[in-house]
Write a structure and sequence with these properties.
The chain is mainly alpha-helical. It has helices spanning about 1-10, 15-30, 35-45, 45-55, 75-90, 95-100; strands spanning about 60, 65-70. It is elongated and about 50 Å long. The protein starts with a helix and ends in a 5-residue tail after the last helix.
Length: about 100
Amino acid sequence: MRVVLLLVEKHPWNNMSQLKAHQVFDDLFKTELSNDEKVSFLQVSEVTSVLVRMAKVPEVKFASGNRIRNGFMGFVIKLANLIKTKTDLITDVEKQSEVLTSEW
């Protein structure tokens, strides 16, 4: 999953990769997996650190000086909201603080 997130970061205007990546995380929270397994998936994918890194580049500057919002910013906001909402409901996992760091 980490590779897919890196593809989204490298190709910020590719909506297909953004939609598929979001779908994977949405499906993750809808599955019957234990909360430990869900948090482990978040940890292994490094999704929170990737989203924080992507959020630090909110816009693109062209040679003309014009700036526009980066192509992946909608994805970053939507996925961050999903993860925040779903992980707020998970309280019985010890590793959660390793995934949802203070930077997050």
